[in-house]
Amino acid sequence: MDRFIEDKTNKVQVSLGGDTEEKKINFNDLKTGGFIKQKQKDLFTVRLRCPGGKITTKHLIEISKIADKYSQKGVIHLSYRQSLEILYVDYKEFSSIVDELTKIGVRVASCGPRVRVPTACGGCEYNPNGLTDTQGMAQMVDEKFFGTPTHHKFKTSFSGCPLDCSRTREMDLGFQGAVDPVWDEPSCTGCTICAEVCNEDAIDAHPETGKPIFKPDNCIYCGDCIRACPTGSWTARRTGHLVRIGGKHGRHPLEALAVANFIPDENVPDVIEKTIEWYKANGVRGERIGSTLRRVGYDSYHTFMEETFKVGSPVREDI
Amino acid sequence: MSDIKVDDSIDLRGVICPMNFVKTKLRLEALDDGQVLEVTLDKGEAFQNVPKSIKDEGHKIVEVKREDDHFRLKIEKCG
What we know:
Structural class of chain A: alpha+beta
Mean pLDDT of chain A: 91
Oligomer: heterodimer
Number of strands of chain B: 4
Strand content of chain A: 15-25%
Shape of chain A: globular
Number of domains of chain A: 2
CATH architecture of chain B: 2-Layer Sandwich
CATH topology of chain B: Translation Initiation Factor IF3
Number of helices of chain B: 2
């Protein structure tokens, strides 16, 4: 057995060769470090860290050169979480590929029970629907929380608006942009644009004046009314993140539930930190936070998060 | 707010997104600052998107009139 290390994920043994230097490779460390064993003997996938799926063209050019050198088939795969994966890399070349990636400022991602690289849509920087700086948030999470050990994998994502392209409902902890609209009567001309653009039947136009009749229960906080209003009568009372927790996909999917709304950017790190704290205290090894919440009860989490969520509005969404 | 003088007009009924916006933009480019373009748009998707895009580009919607299944917008060119 000393010449083999068992990969517990799929029971395939991988030869580590005979010399002393190679024996130092610890396969658990490898998985921590984003090296994923392939079917093919000695070959691994090297997953890169691309928070929010954004890569500079300069990096992309350099990564291409490195992939071309180390991938035995000359291929890259786009992972389901917006990362680049260099396929068919011989494990004997790990240290040299990591050295070369480090030189150009590209880091290797992670697998296993820890905080993963966050995913994100374009966000407010260039997407017209975007309400929050999802890319900035993804960078922040990557810098502050990447690799934090947890009971099981811990996935986060940022969507800039309720279209939710980053699928926050499938995340262990997801953040979706939301804006709370407020209407100012004197500046309104009763043009009815807002009632027309609202897709959620949250605004009726008054039959005589054309002025909006707001039905807050239907509002999903997308901000279409604010963006379309020609006179600026609809404005943002507050903009922030709708927080969803406990989702996952895979064999037994769970839908994340909304627990707070309008959390400002600067409080997002606090929400993540406290949530991980609750998860560490209440979860067990190998259990996703969604299962912990369903086992222990959402009440425990809400109570624990009460202070943290005060900067926005706590939300109770039923299972 | 009625009787705003119109310098040019375009009927975009039946034109789909985002071509309706592109056509609006091209017409606006031919105008001077402060001049007004009248655009006729279908209800629904066209009207949900075009006004927002016009605002995003910095132009001003100075009049909106609803007529059955379409809208008539007056847009003042800004910048």
